[in-house]
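Re-running the complex after MR caught last week's input typo. The corrected sequence lines follow. Everything else is unchanged.
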Amino acid sequence: MADKPRIKLPKEAKKGEIIQIKTLVSHLMESGQRKDAQGKPIPRKIVNKFACEFNGKPVFSCALEPAISANPYIQFDARIDEEGTFKFAWTDDDGSVVAAEEKIALKG
Amino acid sequence: MSIRYVSLAGLAMAALVLSAIAASGQEAERKGIPAPPGHVFQTIISGYQFRTKETRALQDDDLENPGFLAVERAADVWKAVDGSEGKSCMSCHGEAETTMKGVGAAMPKWSEKLNKPVNLEQQINICRTEHMKAQPWAFKSNELTDMTTFVRSQSRGMPVAVKTDGPMSPWFEKGKEIYYTRVGQLDLACASCHEKNNGKFMRADFLSQGQTNGFPTYRLRDQRLIPLHERFEGCMFDVRGVPYKPLSDEFLALEVYVAWRGIGLPVETPSVRN
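Corrected-run output:
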């Protein structure tokens, strides 16, 4: 999963406005339930945790389970009270973390 | 006696009105474009129109569309040098956003040098072996499918404009013959499903008219992009026939013919399908 995650949120928002955040990360999400051509189980490899923080405070997080499709797409809302930085992190089964950041400014 | 006739007629009228409403409702939902002259259909309808609104929404939003992961990957490969000539795709073609516009919409195209049509996958590999002196990518490999998707997506929204006259016409005729030839244990031709029965349910899905404007398509079932010839193979396998080989002359002829059947439809690559 060398690809950059895809994140979409507005560049700026009014104070108190509720914005929508869309994320999509490229990942195989191998469930561990499948078998290869030789009949051996393919080891599980999924992104098991997603978390989003805003200025160090948690906004949204979730645990992902094996039934979730490849390239998981996650969408959620957040209320903006101050300008700052969103930090996103996807934690893989092998412990590696894909991290990304997006800034948002206050309008007017 | 006469009263009974009247009521029967009334019922028949009601049934007619009802079926007319049902038909118009479906027509309104599936928008098509007028077919080219000589086509069997009055209107040709993209496979997009046969999908649920959730699947269509997935295709419409570039961020949600998982096919765009391939486009982004290939955009980097476009600039990467490969092979002994020290060239990248960009060395010859420049910015794909301008130079590749419309290229994918006109494929397969006649090649004077090879004296046969070539499709986009083959053209990419010709560039790699002849100009870059690099290894060709295998069919179905992520690299080839990604690059095909990337180049074709530069023609997004442009009408499919494949040429079928001149030297292409024998290939067109050959493709037409394959389209109408029944094969396999189930004894079905392409036309049996996509011409005679499109819009009806097969298993849990609607049969489309079988257009090529969305390929390579991201199939939710496979969770990856599927190139056209793999789809051809899949169809032939499903009717329990022995498929032709991908990139074979037979499939190339079929691609020419099927592309013509969807001529004028906007290129949707990368589209999202079930």
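None of the earlier attempt is carried over here. Chain B touches chain A at residues 63-64, 66, 68-69, 72-73, 220, 223-224 (CB under 8 Å). Confidence is low (pLDDT under 50) at residues 1-28 of chain B.
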